[in-house]
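Q: Sequence in, structure out?
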Amino acid sequence: MTGHRKILIVAYPAQGLLNPSLRFAKRLLNMGVDVTYSTSLSAIRCIDEKTTPHGLTFSPFSDGHDSGQQPDTTLQQFVSDFATNGASAVAEILSFATAAGQPFDHLVYTTVAPWAALVADAHGIQSTVLWCQSATAMDIYYYYFDGYQGLISSNNNNPIFPINFPGLPPLIIADLPSFFLPSNANENHFVISLLKDHVDALKLSPTILVNSFNELEPESIRAIEKLVFLPIGPLVPSEFLDGKESLNNSSGEDFIKIPAEDDYIQWLNTKPKSSVVYVSFGTLATLSMDQIEEVASGQLECRRPFLWVIRDSLSAERLSKIDLLKKQGMIVNWCSQAKVLCDEAIGCFLTHGGWNSTVEAVVGGVPMVVFPQWADQAKNGKMIEDVWRTGVRVRKREGDGMGEGREIERCLKMVMGDEKMKRNAEKWRNLAREALNNGGSSTINLQAFLDDL
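A: Exactly. Output:
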């Protein structure tokens, strides 16, 4: 029985966490759960009322940045302020609900908000993390703080040094999350501290709701006995599962307010099946102008039509061969990635390899060229190329890490012409959708989570 359960979701205000956590909230609502969603005021203001899940209650709070993160605010300060102000606000939400005779049964918190587990525990409420990276990434973080920190730290200047974690695929230093590598040491120290807070919070509850599915990461899910992974993903728009017609008549379930739709869908409709390269490097990565020029060169030499998302329109207009690019493809500053990856015209996804993008490509059955930028993206690229075999990684130039145009061209041509890779992508697409069907592994796992509350 799942009805009459009352769950509070606490979400860090980043688009890569808001969308999956709102999709999770929508699934809970559809199962009869009473859901309250708490995040910053600035994030709530960005949520589109037209796509908000029916019945969802919002409980926003000020994190001290009511206009969102500003250019002069460091990520460390922004995360710290969200934690400090959020802990007070969530404590108040829990206390008020209890005093009103309508206490919460459970608290679910997203990645980057491990402090919420401590607040819940102080109020006698169980909590569970909604982990919006892969199970493999969580395993690596756990192992790092459980005896592997010295080995990694003493060899992090050797990118090919092998790291063998029990139960995980063979890795090298270059495959590990960027936070363990020597560059950006100050930022890495702050993020590593945050990751340790996440691992420590698992001592209160070892259950991890992960945006993955059993079939995608079977070894990683079972690798560490002390952790209980419940894959309940992929957390993708529900329209992904209903066919192209349903998706074309929707927003693609982007809960964040979006610009008026451009004509990119109509443009895609004029292209042959599997002929277009979709290019996007996420909402956080910022490429240098030189790197953008190399990406452009690779696409021009590949001679395939492309749909390229460049968020900074000034950078797009500064491209040296902008006229040639506009003849060959289409450049936009935003698109609904869900819609695009479901479009039959898409034959390849040139991506940074963020987990949300990876999962959406898996569900869309789209092969990938991965050009990792930071965080867990190198590890995701490793899985895509060597484990799931649905793509290849861009080999970066030694010294500056540049992805050269000729290398990008090589990767695009390889993926677009590899029939076996396309069949693998189709296989994972089918398994992902089966996991979300009635009787599928992710549906069963979510029901088990609610039954155990």
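The longest helix spans residues 75-99.
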